[in-house]
Amino acid sequence: MPSYKVCVYAICKNEEAFAVPFMESMREADAVIVLDTGSTDGSVERLRSLGAQVYQECIQPWRFDTARNRSLALVPDDADICVCVDLDERFTPGWRQKLEQAWTPDTDRASYRYTWNFREDGSEGCVFFLDKIHARHGFRWKYPVHEVLEFLPDRPCRSVCAVGVQLNHHADPSKSRAQYLPLLELAVREYPQDDRNVHYLGREYMFRGRWDDCIRTLLQHLDMPQATWREERAASMRFLAFSYLQKGQKDLARVWYHRSIAEAPNLREPYIDFAKMLYAEQDWYGVLFLVRSALRIQNRPPIYISEADAWGSLPYDLASLAYYYTGALSDALNAVDDAIALSPKDARLLGNRQFFLQKLAKVT
Q: pTM for the full model?
């Protein structure tokens, strides 16, 4: 197997608390290069003491693509493999060997499994594949936020999947997302024909509770001729439904949930979000229909749109409650057992199970 020069590169600001686990995770690389963009908490000194090559630069005006490109420029020209990570991310041990097994001398880029978040019980939340491992030359970062690697040569990018490479994200929940909205608005102004950024902007408006802005932007996304990825279109439709629901326009919410299901029937998420709406309306048979439909989908797509709730205990939890309210106590017990198998420490689910057992005992 060929030997490659592997360099990790990252940007950093006030992440001293992550320095030790980060450097321990990245020690398999030949070099760890960090561009600090204005830390005041000792990040620079701590990372240097742990062996990182740390450079400092203030990026004004702030944008993620500029910072990433400046950090990439610090990687030596003779590096074979560049690994872009953040300080709150960690590889599982053995990642370099698995990466080198997949990489070939003419590889441009590698994808790998990424866990974006974890649930309260420690189980995986949102999981998909990233491709931020790349050759030293031929790439640049693009977009002010939610930046992506752009392949520059006029030929197809040669990609491999690095089977067994696992990167885990352990985000600091105290960090603000305040900068995301203005940067997304900037991205849409700079790249008005980029459907991805329009979708992200609409989603960000939803996160902020700006329902009318969300609706306007996501309708714009769906009208774009280049917006052809069905799963992302379905997500826009689902977010439209949720926004209309928050505005009290339930009929429109129903329309958009139905359209989301029709757009990407391979996704559980539209069924489950619609089921939550019907649960609030106490439409128990509607809940059961939607949850059963969702559970028929057995293969979880490895995309960022695949949300943890739809693949955790929630579908079985909703089913158990709907069964109970329709008088199907045995089915309610079976469903809550399935939910507990996925969330064994959930006190509410455990309490519901005892409640169902007591009800069953009274009728038998």
A: 0.92
